[in-house]
Amino acid sequence: MLHPKLGRVMKVVYYHSVVFALMSTTLRIRSHRKCIRLAKVSRTYTIYSLFVGIFLFLNVYYMVPRLIEDGYMKYNIVLQWNFFAMLLLRAIAVVGCYGTLWLKRHENIRLYKNSLVYWKRFGHIMKAIVDRNELLDLQASLARIMVRKIILLYGAFLCSTVLQYQLLSVINKQSLVAFSARLTHFLHFLSVKMGFCGILVLLNHQFLVIHLAINALHGRKAQNKWKALRSVASMHLKTVQIAKRIFGLYDIINATVFINMFMSAINILYHAVQYSNSTIKSDGWGILFGNGLIVFNFWGTLMLMEILDNVVTSCNNTGQQLRQFCDLPKVGSRLQRELDVLTLQLRRNRLVYKICGIVELDKPACLSYIGSILSNVIILMQFDLRRQRQPSNDHLHLINLFKNKTEV
Predict the structure, then answer these.
(1) Which residues pair with 37 in a beta bridge?
(2) Is 340 helix (H, G, I), strand (E, B) or coil?
(3) Taking the model in full, what pTM does it have?
(4) Phi-psi region of 348 (alpha: psi -120 to 50; beta: other; left: phi over 0)
(5) Structure confidence by residue, pLDDT tens digits, 291-349
(6) If we measure between CA atoms, which residue out of 94, 79, 142, 138 comes closest to residue 273?
(7) Rounded to whole angstroms, how far apart are CA atoms 270 and 79?
(8) Quick one: which of 152, 252, 239 has its CA closest to 199?
(9) Cα–Cα distances in Å, from 8 out to 5, 33, 37, 42, 146?
(10) At how many degrees (to 10) do helices 105-129 and 225-249 cross?
(11) Which end of the chain is more exposed for a tag (fewer CB within 10 A), N or C?
């Protein structure tokens, strides 16, 4: 059972991933039969993936415009180094993304197959336990979250496109090629973040469905309640295993995503500083789209962190749902045994998301993330202040020198 809105949103995420070859093979989606299967064009799609990866990597070369020589970056070494750092990170992101998909292609396909088996196995069980209206309401709420995320991604892309075009000092063939290359990489980065959010939404859906199933079992009067609880425990264990497998398989890709998000936020804020002190000339449209880019970028980042935190929280807070069984006046021996097994399982299988097994992403880490961005921007602003003071000091020195000569 899948809400039509959530199904359409997931198709949008899927087709974005297919266009940029972010999957190891394609899926065959048939809406009228409500089935999803692995397609038989994996070899052709692998060649297409190789072509897309090489194309994006070579585009990094064409992203270097003459903007460094005669544009707004000519007299600002911080912007120049920031620009080359972004180019290096984009190249690393492309290599890490498609390298993971090529080297771990068979593991990805095996993950797809296991996920399809998982959905078919537990779909019928959840349909028999969870109330239909509650499930549809849950899926509709997740669809709205994903729609908002897509709007934020494309809003940031639109604002960035307008600003990048306004920053072109000279419009010629070379600058337009560099501009098109940057837009291609922006769309690739957008598709990667959209695919990551789509995976998180599906995982959150499964954990919240488990919560609904536990609530339904608490209020249901049946003789075989313990069998249904065993199925719920099996579903939870399998979902945690799939989540850990996804996090581990796409660890390098997700690490490059967060690093690029960090550098992009610093780059956007530092450009905002240049606009505010009139180092970069702009009109009303530039200020409007610049503010829009800041809002969309940080709103989208915070929303991604919130979705990730919801997945981890909904998994680890499943034990809170089991406390309501303590209110039952009488619990059978079989049901009590299944409750004890599920409680022990929840203690042993807590979900934690870490980047490269080092940095744990949670709400405190999100605050540290925002604080680090602001700290780095403030540090970069010190270079601007020092550079702006330098001409005035030279001017005073020349005035004093001229006065000494006239006195002599």
Answers:
(1) 28
(2) helix
(3) 0.85
(4) alpha
(5) 888 889 888 888 888 899 899 888 888 878 777 766 666 667 777 787 888 888 888 88
(6) 79
(7) 8
(8) 239
(9) 5, 15, 17, 24, 11
(10) 160
(11) C
**Residue 115 structure tokens:** 């996920």
Give exposure, 314-347, as e/b (b: 16+ Cβ within 10 Å).
bbbebeebbeebeeeeeeeeebeebbeebbebbe
Six-digit token pair at 298? 């940080």
Distance in angstroms (rounded) separating the CA atoms of residues 137 and 186: 34
Locus of tokens 């042993």 = 348
Closest CA to 220 of 131, 323, 336, 341: 131
Look at 19 and 384; give whichever has higher pLDDT.
Answer: 19
Structure tokens at 398: 């020349």
Q: How far apart are CA 92 and CA 17, in angstroms?
A: 19
The whole-chain average pLDDT of the chain stands at: 80
Residue owning tokens 């064009």: 41
**Backbone Cα Rg of the chain:** 27
| Tokens at 83, concatenated | 């620009």
User: Do 366 and 305 touch, CB atoms closer than 8 A?
Assistant: yes
Q: Residue 38 — left, alpha, or beta (φ > 0 → left; ψ -120 to 50 → alpha)?
A: beta
DSSP collapsed to 3 states, 223-280: CCHHHHHHHHHHHHHHHHHHHHHHHHHCHHHHHHHHHHHHHHHHHHHHHHHHHHCCCC
Q: How far apart are CA 1 and CA 122, in angstroms?
A: 11
What's the one-letter identity of residue 343? T
Q: Are 25 and 45 in contact (CB under 8 A)?
A: yes
**Among the ranges given (32-41, 54-63, 127-136, 218-227), the one the predictor scored with the smallest mean pLDDT:** 32-41
Give Cα 374 distance to the centre of its chain.
20
How many other CB atoms are found less than 10 A from the CB of residue 190? 19
Q: How far apart are CA 382 and CA 273, in angstroms?
A: 11
29: left (phi over 0), alpha (psi -120 to 50) or beta: beta
Residue 325 tokens read as 């069984």
Range 28-37 burial, b when 16+ CB lie within 10 A, else e: ebeeeeeebe
Q: Are strands 35-38 and 27-30 parallel, antiparallel or unpaired?
A: antiparallel
Q: What phi and psi, each to the nearest 5 degrees, are found at residue 3?
A: -65, 140
